[in-house]
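Late entry, written up from scratch paper. The run itself happened at the end of the previous shift, but nothing got recorded in the book at the time, so transcribing now.
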Amino acid sequence: MTDAQKQFIETVGALVQADAAAARILPSVTIAQAILESGWGKSALTQKANALFGIKADKNWTGPVYASRTKECYDGVRFTKETACFRAYADWAESIADHGAFLCGLSRYRHVIGEDNYRAACIALQQAGYATDPDYAGKLIGLIERFELTRFDQQTVYTVQRGDTLTKIARRFGTTVDGLVEANRTKYPRMTRDDIQAGWVLKI
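Output as recorded:
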């Protein structure tokens, strides 16, 4: 692993773990997608539009758009080049947040959301039609295993939003209020069962 690759993984990993929507998807899978889709952050789409995941801008997208060349494989054998319009973002954090919201908002990705087996999640992504590459799942799995990305799955974090309560957060992540308090008391000594603040980054 090069220093640049390590930096990319650590940067994206931290952003993924801090995002609420992304937390419902295995971080290892999201990081592998970012590596593959952005070419380690060096693709024109990522450099020009901060787009890490190559999500196309359909009629429901109202944000900025960037046109870029892409390769698609519609018959499972031959790749063709074409120009497509992709969603563009202000920064990588925004790209990661939209990726999580995109997957969580479409029923066809329901087998990805909450899946705790990275192999199953990668296969579900391909079967749901995220990419046309017939070896998409295999490439993601290869990246996860080669770069040991499952280490990011061992700890989930969540950024407290305005209006959140520990009860709501505990219910969302399948844990308890007491467990949240215990896990975060060292970092936030003033934290109680009834007192949290927007912006705090909690260990789940």
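The radius of gyration is 18 Å.
(Scratch paper discarded after transcription.)
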